[in-house]
Amino acid sequence: MTLQCPVSTRSSDGPRLTTATLYSSLEPCAKRASRPRPCAQLIKGSGLHRVVTAWSEPDAFVTDAEGNEILEEADVTVVPLTEYVNAAQAPTQYLLRHPRAGQRHTFPLMTGH
Q1: Taking Cα atoms as reference points, which of 15, 62, 16 lies closest to residue 40?
Q2: What does each C-alpha distance from 2 to 32, 35, 108 come to in angstroms?
Q3: pLDDT tier at 2 (50, 70, 90 boundaries)?
Q4: What's the confidence (pLDDT) of residue 93?
Q5: 12 and 22 in contact (C-beta within 8 Å)?
Q6: Whole-angstrom distance, CA of residue 31 vs CA of residue 93
Q7: Whether the predicted pLDDT of 69 surpasses 80
Q8: Whole-number Å distance between alpha carbons of 111 and 97
Q9: What pLDDT, in 10s, does the model give residues 6-50?
Q10: Alpha-carbon torsion 16, 20, 26, 30, what sign?
């Protein structure tokens, strides 16, 4: 399964993006093995100014994730809704309890509407 950042298919010159909010259950990725540009970089270049997340990316998925920091440094407001972290983690609980060292995993797409 290939995951795609929702802004990767949007034109950055659209005026509506500057007032839009991106909702994601997981912190936007700062590192990406399958595509040339990670989600945090795509968001940074999109014109979006607000991102709402429920969960910071854990080391079990990507070590030293820094997607939120990249966005904040680019003057993108990051709003963590930590009250939704349990719901955001639910689909991947088995990985958080029993990660297999050195084995790559694919994860389900978790985005809010």
Answers
A1: 62
A2: 12, 10, 9
A3: very low
A4: 77
A5: no
A6: 22
A7: yes
A8: 22
A9: 555 555 556 777 888 999 988 998 887 677 888 899 999 888 999
A10: positive
Domain topology for 22-97: Cytidine Deaminase; domain 2 (3.40.140)
Please give the radius of gyration of the chain, using alpha carbons only, rounded to the nearest integer.
Answer: 14
What is the amino acid identity at position 112?
G
How buried is residue 6: exposed, middle or buried, by Cβ count under 10 Å (0-12/13-18/19+)? Answer: middle
Residue with tokens 């990670």: 38
pLDDT: which is higher, 2 or 47: 47
Residue 87: both structure tokens together:
């719901």
- For the chain, give every domain's residue range: 22-97
Quote the pLDDT of residue 22: 92
